[in-house]
Design goal:
Number of helices: 9
Oligomer: single chain
Largest sheet: 4 strands, antiparallel
Strand order of the largest sheet: 2-3-1-4
Shape: globular
CATH class of the domain at 1-63: Alpha Beta
Helix content: 55-70%
Radius of gyration: 19 Å
Structural class: alpha+beta
CATH architecture of the domain at 1-63: 2-Layer Sandwich
CATH topology of the domain at 1-63: Alpha-Beta Plaits
């Protein structure tokens, strides 16, 4: 049985879902971002209990078809931002259309209607969070980060980062270094 999960966007979300399934003695075939597959059909009671357990982490089971499509769109976007280390040979709009078998216009309008934001704005927000992670936890240069996240240049990355956060990536990194030194002195 396939079950779709809203807001499941990272590896720790998978752990939360796996733990909840284990507590309920439900055997998953696989747990992916936004999707669970179980060996057996779940009763309504099991679904309610699973939903109750994962809600504590901000996750939610999806029952409605429209919610499922939005989560599929999110999953493709998350994979695009977090997992693709080399630039795809096609535009994101083509990638999304091929992945979900709908026109990009339909998917973009649908996503905007349900989420009250555009796909482009959502991608930018995810990229900004990914840039922050890479600056804080990684040793990548700004050029490497720009390449990983499909920016045409470091200048483009910097402009978008500053517009979203009010800080340049260099200033953000300097704040991180300043905090690190302070913590080390304690």
């Amino acid at each position: 049985m396939k079950i779709y999960v809203k807001n499941m966007a990272c590896e720790s979300c998978k752990v939360v879902v796996k733990d909840a399934l284990e507590e309920l003695d439900i055997s998953p075939v696989k747990v992916e971002l936004g999707e669970i597959e179980t060996k057996e059909e779940l009763t309504d009671e099991e679904k309610l209990e699973l939903n109750r357990k994962i809600k504590k982490a901000g996750l939610e089971l999806l029952e409605k078809k429209q919610g499922v499509l939005v989560e599929k769109i999110r999953k493709v976007i998350i994979d695009y931002v977090y997992k693709s280390d080399e630039k795809p040979n096609v535009k994101f709009s083509v990638l999304l259309s091929e992945e979900l078998n709908h026109s990009y216009t339909y998917l973009a309008n649908f996503f905007s209607e349900i989420e009250a934001t555009t796909i482009e704005q959502y991608i930018i927000a995810l990229k900004i969070e990914r840039i922050k992670e890479l600056i804080i936890f990684g040793d990548d240069t700004f050029s490497e980060i720009a390449h990983k996240l499909h920016y045409s240049s470091v200048a483009h990355l910097s402009a978008q980062f500053k517009k979203a956060t009010g800080l340049t990536p260099s200033h953000f990194k300097a704040l991180k270094e300043k905090r690190r030194i302070t913590i080390q002195n304690i």
